[in-house]
């Protein structure tokens, strides 16, 4: 336990984020006292090169150690939060008036709500009808405050359901009355959850439901009376962990690839020793544990997670077993890449990253062998490691508990991701048959379509803004609500960029946000998935923008580049497209004298409007 605080002190002293191993220890701790202590140590951290996210905490009660627990969890995600805490009991006022959004709006607002918001202090036990009426009215008040907050700010607002306090339930001596108030409380929490459906920028954590699966008490009665703290440290740690998962997803830090071992992970036993008929899969324990984890993995695949098989085995018996075993859920075709050989798993992971054109920071590696996990962790510390060792009954929980693949919303592009990246791997193999890059690009038969967003594509554009880090020109993360608002503004343009080639459609891989002035257009941001970089698509987008601006009568097109730790690949984009460097990160194209040409190997779809 002393190792973690010492590692944090070192990071604070060196003004850097803790290393990946220390962040993993922060993330995985279930000890509220240790997590609270870590948060206090991290309060002195001022990292020089970490992504910074502004987070505001609003509450109906005293927040206690929530600030420290939240700081600890968010740092574990690899970001540094600038935390602002609202006044005690100020949640409704600040949401309604938008005070929390001034002077600078936060990226995220996490609300801490207890029953005092809904239940009057002097409620009457033999008049449950009046109590029900009051609770329902307060739910309406909360909905109104959330609606107002959505008008004031584009911040993601994180709410949570409220556990039913025992002292409220047990104060009613009639079992029928208890049943009635319990049913009402479920309706209340259902209403809070529904706010997430009504507002795209609202996310709701089911704290009441999650508490049933954790070893913590919801409330420490003494601290509740002593300091108006309605939640125990354990409950607050659980909420902070869920907020961290939402922030991870909102900032595009979720993972895309799940790399899986086979022996001891997807089935029990060693194939080379027991044969296909001897592995433990399906039936009774422990075989049912491996069947359950395969089902969990398939559900991830259905939602767009890319699967990679990394097994030290001979490929022929693996292929035969995966096809023939009647309880096998994940057949060979479920895996975008199959690295079944006797090479180092770390090396196989590197080759897979190259084939998919994805950074290893987007990978999760699950294996039952300590050596394999340690080797991958030492070579690629940014890879998320999941242990499959120990009792296989815990496999599904181990895989899912940290929310590595969380998304704020799921788009059709997400669901097709495995298919898209399988085609990407085929492109890499196809490119080996050409000596010149231009010949390869012509052979791909690339088509690009740029179209204004619709209600169906707004979520995808916002998701691209959140998840794209390499070719992200300004780093502005336009959320779903903000993107929808700009898309209906006559003075703005929001569009998605879709790409297809001889291997099929890549789907919407890019998005742009622009301000359309009479004499000048200004690009607010342009993002493009790294999986299509190097094909000239970014130049085709610049050509389309220049053509659209010129047709509107604009005299100049202004682009901007804001350097970050991860977007160096886009540093020369504007000048390479023919724009003049105007200083302060701005680049200008004089539309009266200059144009941008679409690369010869790219065909612009008719809906794009410009050749």
TrEMBL record:
InterPro entries the record matches: FkbH_domain (IPR010037), HAD-like_sf (IPR036412), HAD_sf (IPR023214), HAD_SF_ppase_IIIC (IPR010033), SGNH_hydro_sf (IPR036514)
Organism ancestry: Bacteria, Bacillati, Actinomycetota, Actinomycetes, Streptosporangiales
Protein name (database record): HAD-IIIC family phosphatase
Cleavable signal peptide: none
Entry superkingdom: Bacteria
């Amino acid at each position: 336990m002393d190792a973690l605080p010492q590692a944090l002190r070192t990071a604070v002293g060196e003004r850097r984020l803790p290393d990946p191993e220390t962040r993993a220890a922060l993330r995985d701790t279930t000890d509220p006292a240790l997590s609270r202590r870590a948060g206090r140590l991290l309060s002195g951290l001022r990292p020089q090169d970490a992504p910074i996210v502004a987070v505001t905490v609003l509450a109906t009660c005293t927040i206690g150690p929530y600030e420290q627990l939240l700081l600890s969890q968010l740092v574990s995600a690899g970001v540094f939060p600038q935390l602002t805490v609202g006044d005690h009991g100020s949640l409704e006022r600040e949401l309604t008036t938008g005070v929390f959004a001034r002077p600078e709006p936060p990226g995220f607002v996490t609300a801490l709500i207890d029953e005092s918001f809904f239940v009057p202090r002097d409620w009457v036990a033999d008049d449950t009808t009046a109590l029900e009426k009051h609770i329902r009215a307060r739910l309406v008040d909360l909905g109104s405050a959330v609606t107002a907050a959505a008008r004031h700010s584009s911040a993601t607002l994180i709410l949570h359901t409220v556990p039913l306090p025992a002292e409220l339930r047990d104060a009613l001596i009639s079992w029928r009355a208890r049943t009635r108030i319990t049913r009402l409380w479920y309706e209340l929490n259902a209403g809070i959850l529904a706010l997430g459906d009504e507002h795209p920028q609202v996310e709701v954590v089911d704290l009441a439901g999650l508490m049933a699966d954790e070893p913590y008490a919801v409330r420490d009665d003494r601290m509740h009376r002593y300091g108006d703290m309605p939640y125990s440290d354990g409950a607050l740690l659980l909420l902070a962990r869920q907020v961290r998962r939402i922030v991870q997803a909102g900032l595009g830090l979720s993972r895309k690839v799940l790399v899986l071992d086979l022996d001891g992970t997807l089935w029990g036993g060693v194939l080379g020793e027991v044969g296909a008929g001897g592995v433990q899969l399906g039936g009774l324990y422990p075989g049912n544990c491996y069947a359950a984890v395969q089902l969990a993995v398939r559900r991830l695949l259905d939602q767009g997670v890319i699967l990679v098989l990394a097994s030290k085995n001979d490929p022929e018996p693996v292929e035969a077993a995966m096809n023939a075993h009647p309880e096998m859920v994940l057949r060979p075709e479920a895996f975008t890449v199959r690295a079944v050989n006797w090479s180092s798993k770390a090396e196989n992971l590197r080759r897979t990253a190259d084939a998919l054109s994805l950074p290893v920071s987007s990978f999760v590696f699950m294996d039952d062998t300590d050596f394999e996990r340690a080797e991958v962790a030492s070579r690629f510390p940014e890879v998320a490691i999941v242990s499959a060792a120990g009792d296989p009954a815990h496999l599904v929980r181990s895989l899912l508990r940290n929310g590595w693949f969380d998304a704020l919303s799921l788009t059709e592009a997400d669901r097709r991701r495995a298919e898209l990246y399988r085609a990407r791997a085929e492109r890499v193999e196809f490119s080996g048959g050409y000596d010149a890059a231009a010949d390869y690009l012509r052979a791909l038969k690339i088509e690009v379509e740029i179209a204004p967003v619709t209600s169906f594509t707004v979520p995808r554009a916002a998701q691209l803004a959140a998840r794209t880090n390499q070719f992200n020109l300004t780093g502005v993360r336009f959320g779903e609500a903000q993107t929808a608002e700009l898309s209906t503004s006559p003075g703005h343009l929001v569009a998605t960029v879709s790409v297809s080639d001889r291997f099929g459609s890549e789907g919407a891989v890019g998005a742009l946000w622009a301000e359309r002035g009479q004499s000048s257009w200004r690009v607010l941001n342009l993002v493009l998935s790294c999986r299509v970089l190097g094909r000239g698509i970014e130049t085709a987008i610049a050509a389309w923008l220049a053509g659209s601006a010129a047709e509107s009568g604009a005299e100049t097109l202004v682009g901007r580049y804001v350097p970050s730790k991860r977007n160096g690949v886009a540093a020369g984009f504007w000048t390479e497209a023919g724009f003049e460097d105007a200083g302060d990160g701005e680049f200008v194209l004089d539309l009266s004298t200059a144009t941008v040409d679409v690369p010869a190997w790219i065909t612009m779809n008719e809906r794009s409007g410009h050749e």
